[in-house]
Specification:
The protein is α/β, with parallel strands linked by helices. The protein has a domain of 123 residues: Rossmann fold (3-Layer(aba) Sandwich). The protein is 25% helix and 31% strand. It has a seven-stranded mixed sheet, sandwiched between helices. Helix 3 packs across helix 4. The longest helix has 15 residues. The N and C termini lie far apart (46 Å).
Length: 203
């Protein structure tokens, strides 16, 4: 039997992460609070991709609360349900739903939901994937806010909007923490309101 405690784990990326800048005070604009709690992970999940990691934001309790309250203040009374996209959209979406006192519906990768589902395939900047939502997750006319961490090429958000609408709800808005504007993801969401807490114009 191998002694796991003596084994050296393999690093998840050959290039070390770029440390996040010094945290901005919570009195700063929310975009600065977010920006100062993100870090870049080069070559993840594949070589050539710079992954925007917001686990430093999640681990900062007061900053996380500020983000959740900022989002909740924008949609109080105008949405009936929060839809969170796997994976990080699940974390923030559930927190915002709790803050608003409304329901939460997960959109997950194929094979993760146990009931009858609607599914959609979409392209990523480094591949493709399939996401699903329970077919009975919504009653007709429910007003949904779709949440994710990053809007990049827009494929994930577009597929999530189509899933929510096919299940009988209406998409009131798409909310993200970070928008990579140079990837033009909004072009796939024409006609749907999109709000980003932080917009990055260049790579």
């Amino acid at each position: 039997m191998t002694d796991a405690s003596a084994a050296s784990p393999e690093p998840s990326s050959s290039t070390p992460p770029v440390p996040a800048p010094s945290p901005a005070p919570l009195t700063a604009p929310i975009s600065e609070v977010v920006a100062s709690r993100l870090r870049d992970i080069p070559d993840f999940p594949v070589a050539g991709v710079v992954f925007k990691d917001f686990t430093p934001l999640l681990s900062d309790g007061p900053a996380l609360r500020a983000v959740v309250q900022d989002i909740a203040s924008r949609y109080a009374g105008s949405v009936d349900v929060i839809v969170g996209i796997e994976a990080r959209g699940l974390i923030l979406g559930a927190a915002v739903a709790y803050e608003l006192g409304i329901g939460f519906v997960p959109v997950r990768k194929a094979g993760k939901l146990p009931g009858q589902t609607h599914s959609a395939e979409y392209d990523l900047e480094y591949g493709s994937a399939v996401i699903e939502v329970h077919a009975d997750a919504f009653t007709d006319g429910k007003r949904a806010l779709i949440m994710d961490d990053v809007l990049a090429t827009g494929g994930t958000a577009q597929a999530a909007c189509e899933l929510v609408e096919s299940a009988g709800a209406t998409v009131e808005a798409v909310e993200v923490v970070l928008e990579l504007c140079f990837l033009h993801g909004r072009s796939k969401l024409a006609g749907r309101p999109v709000h980003a807490m932080l917009s990055v114009q260049g790579p």
